[in-house]
Amino acid sequence: MSRRKADAERTREAILDAAETTFLVQGVSRTTLAHIAQEAGVTRGAIYWHFEDKAAVFDALLERVRLPLDGIVDDAVQRLGTTPVECLRDIAQRSLAGICHDLPLQRAATIVLHRCEKLEDKHPRICMITQLPKHAEAHVEALFEQALADGNLRADLTPASARRQFHGFLIGVCFDWLQDPQQYSLADECDAIVETLMRGLLVENTP
């Protein structure tokens, strides 16, 4: 990499770091490119060299910290084979662990869940944090289909509704914890939280 290209990449990363800081403090709507430029120590022109507008900065910020849900799901299925209940438990535990221990992801999730005011609610990139990718969604639903076939899914749930509740529960836990990560240790309570989730979706006495 040439020195000029390396300098440009460092400037781009500095802009994204500054955007993350200002979004966290001020919220997305109240942050301007001028605020980001001041925090990064660059001109607005430098930002426009790398990004079309604030939305593009927001896109890039989320793109660099995506939770690898496709990989988490695929890995669980490969390691745990035909045991859908254990696969689902592993997916839930590792998803929460990502929020606990991956600080850039934690900050990005805080921005999406708590710093995106109404104007940004429908921004397409928000789904990187709040929604399951289609590949992961299909695999999780297939695991619930297998649990149903094995007699392990609650009788009043379909695989699709179980998948929605599985995901909604995890997002709700993250939303609550990220309001104040000092309120309790999510890492310490992760296993108990996941057990509560699994017991709510499965029939009694399911291992």
TrEMBL record:
Question: Is Transferase set as a keyword in this record?
Answer: no
HTH tetR-type domain residues: 9-69
Q: Annotated DNA-binding ranges?
A: 32-51
Q: In the UniProt record, does the keyword Transcription occur? A: yes
Q: Enumerate the UniProt keywords alphabetically.
A: DNA-binding, Repressor, Transcription, Transcription regulation
Q: Which GO terms describe its molecular function?
A: DNA-binding transcription factor activity; transcription cis-regulatory region binding
Residues of the signal peptide? none
Which domain of life does the protein's organism represent? Bacteria
InterPro entries assigned: DNA-bd_HTH_TetR-type_CS, Homeodomain-like_sf, HTH-type_TetR-like_transc_reg, HTH_TetR, Tet_transcr_reg_TetR-rel_C_sf, Tscrpt_reg_MAATS_C
Stated name of the protein? TetR family transcriptional regulator
Origin species: Vreelandella glaciei
Q: What is the lineage of its organism?
A: Bacteria, Pseudomonadati, Pseudomonadota, Gammaproteobacteria, Oceanospirillales
